[in-house]
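Lab notebook, bench 4. We co-purified these components, and the gel suggests they stay together. Before we commit to crystallization screens, I want a quick structural picture of the whole thing.
Request: model the full complex, all chains together.
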Amino acid sequence: MAEKVLMKGNEALAEAAIMAGCKYYFGYPITPQTEVAAYMAKRMPKIGGTFLQAESEVAAINMVLGVAACGKRVMTSSSSPGISLKSEGISYLAGCELPALIVNVQRGGPGLGGIQPSQSDYFQALKGGGHGDYKLIVLAPASIQEMVDLTFKGFDLADKYRMPAMILADGTMGQMMEPVSLELGEVKEYAKPWATTGKATHEGRNIINSLSLSPAQLEEWNINRYERYKIVERDEVMYEEFMMDDAETCVVAFGITSRVAKNAIMEARKRGMKVGMIRPITLWPFPKDALKKAASKVKNFLTVELNMGQMVDDVKLAIDCSKPVYFYGRTGGVIMTPDEVLNKLNEIEKGEAKQW
Amino acid sequence: MVVFEKTKGLTDNQLHYCPGCTHGVIHRLVAETLEELGVTGKTIGIASVGCSVFSYNYFNCDMIQAAHGRAPAVATGAKRANPDNVVFTYQGDGDLAAIGTAETVHSAARGENITVIFVNNAIYGMTGGQMAPTTLPNQVTQTSPYGRDVTVVGYPVKVCEMLSQIDGATYLERVAVNNVKNIRKAKQAIKKAFQNQIEGKGFSLVEVLSTCPTNWGLTPKAALKWLDENMETYYPLGVYKDKYKEEK
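Here is the predicted assembly.
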C-alpha cells in the first residue's frame, strides 16, 4: 500500500500541481485558499519554477495566459470574489484555446460575503462567469485525496482538450487535513505545436488570439470548440454511485456536501429507508446519463448543496423532470448537519416536502 | 539594384490604420529593430486592445493578443516561461494608462525584463475618438465635447514622469514621430529598449507621441504640427530614466 502523509487540502493540491509538472504559479492572497500561494512560494524556487504574487487577480490570470500561450503548465488559485476578477481572463483562455488550471476554494457570497465554506459559485463555474460561449472542465473534490488526484487529472484534461480546467473546491476542502497518497504516476506530455515560443522553433508564425471581426469565422471557431466539448462530454464524465442498487431516493451532492449526505444516507439505511447517492466528480461534463438511468429506477431525487439551489436545475434537466426533485441547501458559510438532510429525507418519504 | 526594402520584421499584410496615422511609422521602427537585432525568430509580441489590436497581423514574429490593459501581465507570464525569448508589448494610451495602469506600474516595479512600446495619441482611436487618460486639458473629444475640463475630469497622466519614480524601471524615454529628426531619435530609443532586454537589464518603456488625424479632425500634415505645438509642450520629450547610464 502506498505510503500516506497527513496534509491540509490547499497544500496537498499545491504539491499535486508540482507533481503534475506545473512550474508556474501566479496568485493573490485571499482566504480560504492562501495556503496554496504560501506553499508555492516555498516550493517553486526549490524546483526552478516561478512563484509570483501578482498585483491583482486580474493580473494573475493574465500572467497565467502568458505562460499557457508559451505551452507550459501553469495554475492560479483563488476564492470566490477573486474568481470573479479572474473571469475576464478565463474567458480569454477559453477563447484562445489555452490549457490552464484554475482553483476556486469557494467561500460564501455574494459580494465580499464571508470566509466560510460554500458551493455558491456553481453557476459561475458552470454557466459562464466570463462572457461568451465556452465551457470549463470543472472537477469537484470531496476528499483531500481527490484534491490531489483531480489536480493531477485537471492538468492532463486541460492539455488534452486545450481548454482551461477548474477545481471547484470549498473552504472545508482547502482547510481540512486528511492522509493522502502522492503516488500519482507518470505525467503525460502533450505536443503543443501552437505555442508562442518564437517562430524560429516552428513553421510560420504562431498567433494566440480570440478576436475575429468576421461573424462567420467567429461562429466557426465556436462551433469547432463545441465539437471538442462533445468529445469531453462523451469520454470524461466521472461520478461515484453510493448504495444505488435498490435506492428509491437518489441524493445528488458534490464536494463536502456529499460527505454530509453520506452520513445521512447511512443513518437512513439503519432506519430502513432505501436511499442512495450519485456524486458528480466532474460537474462539467455533468453525469447526465447516470442520472437519467437512475431516474428509471428511483422515485425521488434530493439535491443537497451549500447554496440556494444551483446544481438542482441541472439535475432536473438531466432527468427531463421525469421524477420529483427536492432540494436542501444551506448558504452563507453554514454547513448542514447529517440530521438536517435526514429530516428532509423523512419529509420526502412522508410526502410533506415541496418539490423544487 | 534594390535601393530600399521593406523590413522583414513586418509581414506583407496591409495595415488597417487610417491615412496619416503614425502607427505605421512606429510599427516600422519596431520591426526594423527586431530585424537589425536578429531576433524576429525568438520574439513574442503582445498585442493590446485599441487601434493596435491587429498588430498581430503585422509584426513578423509570434504574437499573443491580450485583453484590454493586460498586456504587461501577459508579457510577464511569457517572459517568465521563456526567459530566452524577446518579449514586447505594443499598447495605446487607453490600454496602458487607464484600464491597464496597475499592470503597467507593477510590471515596472517588478523590473520585468520586457520592452513596452507605448503609443500616446491623446485619444481613444478605435472606438471613435473618446477622451483618453492622456487627452490634453481643453482638448475636444467625443466624450469631452466642450473640451477636457480638468476641474471635472482631472488631469492627463504623464506616464514617463510617473514611472520614473519606480525603482524597478530601467529605461524610460519619451519620443515623437512627427518629423524626420524625431523619428530617428525614436528609432534609437526603441532599439535601446530592446537591447536592454537582450542584455537582461530589465523594464524598458518608450512612450511615442503619435498622431490621430481622423479623431483629432485634422489633416495628416496639420496633425503633425498639432503634435509639435500641443503635445510636446505637455509631454516633454527626453530620457526620464536610464538606470545604467546613472550608474556609470
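The interface with chain A takes residues 11, 40-44, 46-47, 53, 56, 60-67, 70, 73-82, 85, 102-103, 105-106, 110 of chain B (CB under 8 Å). Worth comparing against the SEC data before the next meeting. Strands of chain B lie at 43-47, 62-65, 86-92, 115-120, 169-176, 203-209, 238-242.
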